[in-house]
Amino acid sequence: MGGAMALTLGALAYPGMLGLSKVSSSPDRVIANTQWGPLTESDRDFVVKVRAAGLWEYPVGQIGLQKGTTKGVIEASKHLVDGHSALDTTCRKIAPMLNITLPNIASPQQEGFVNTLKSESGKKFDTDFANILRMTHGSIFNTVAKIRSTTKNSLVRALADQANDTVLDHITVMEKTGLVDFDQTLFQQTTPPKLPDSDLTPPPPPAGQPEVVLTPPPNATSTPVDIDGLAGGNGGSGGGNAAPSPSPTVG
Question: Are the C-beta atoms of residues 80 and 134 closer than 8 Å to each other?
Answer without folding.
Answer: no
